[in-house]
Protein 1
Amino acid sequence: MSAVIAKRLRDVGDSPIPGPRRTRESEPTPTPRPYAEGVDPVVRRKYECDRRDGMCGRPVDVRGDRCPACARIREPSW
């Protein structure tokens, strides 16, 4: 046990010295993205296709709507 402690004490001098800690003042302030004309600034909500027992997941514009691939699948007429 004492040999392990002695080796660690010898290795302390060889280890690199940690750098200064970063503070919030040293980090640059994030800037917002500039407005680009013609780009729609509204974030549109996307829904997912629920077919194939909820495993399809393709984006659709309206909740409950189906993607083009799932819209072609016929439903069983029980």
Protein 2
Amino acid sequence: MDGFDPEQYCRLYCTFDEGCDPEETDRLRENLRVLDGYYERIGSDLAPASSRLLEYGGGPTVWPLISAARHVNSITFVDYLDANLEFVKKWQKNVESAFDCSSVFRYVVNTIEKNPSADEVDRRQERVRSSIRDIISGDLRLDAPADPRVAAPHSYDVVSCHYTVGHACHVTSDYIPFVKKLGNYLKPGKFLLLSDMPTKYDFPWGNDSGDGKDVNVKDKEFIIDAVRRAGFEVLDVQVVTRPTPDEMPAEQVMVLARKQ
């Protein structure tokens, strides 16, 4: 991941402003719609005044938090890259040079939630900023994937993890144990929102050892089976299809599951 540019990534994939990738914005709209529906579905099991969310592998983005902020009180944000953590910290602190995420907030509030209020868009951004209590480093390959002094096991009502598990795996057999690690942060009966892409991750691992990786997330059924075998009841599965797939996988799988 050397040389990864959070700002360039967000300009291409995480905004509806000029310069974005039109195909990716279609995908983003669908991701936002599915997540909003999932939070509506589980909202009655969450207490907005006390529920906790762990956003694991959030990258440089906050779009998964827009709908979540209506249903949770506190958010722990975790990512592997320091550059991503600093990028999100700038946004949370509302630094003048921070990336402008307002177009995505407007889409969720005005279009998905059908609330035309410009003030509500601003309020939602402030709600997400104030709900993020900690922004910390994490790595699914470690025994403790995040600092247990901040992210304690069995203490979250929702774990949200999007397009991270497959990337973190070194071999295919890592997949189920990594999903189990995410589940370890949840209270019994609480919820995992997991997204991933059926694809073969065979690019260089990019760590100090220079090892390659050979991870084959074969299809939608592989992801569903892995979530079940990791100790979850799968409640819903949505497939987001890219309109004109090229280098990226044609399908992206979004799963809502309950810890058993």
Protein 3
Amino acid sequence: MSQHPSSGSRAAAIPLSAIDVRWSEAESAFVARSSRYPDLMHADPWSALAAVEGFIERAAMRRDIER
């Protein structure tokens, strides 16, 4: 069984409660952000969940690079 990319240890590094997702008229998309990564965001035009999952992936990549 394969794990979803945002599950497991990557997801544990940033709790869902720390991520804010809203519809942005300017972006015409759901935009996910967090005060833990103020310069990072992820937008998805179709799904708030996809915006959150994309944000988690970007945050995980950032942590991997910063190590």
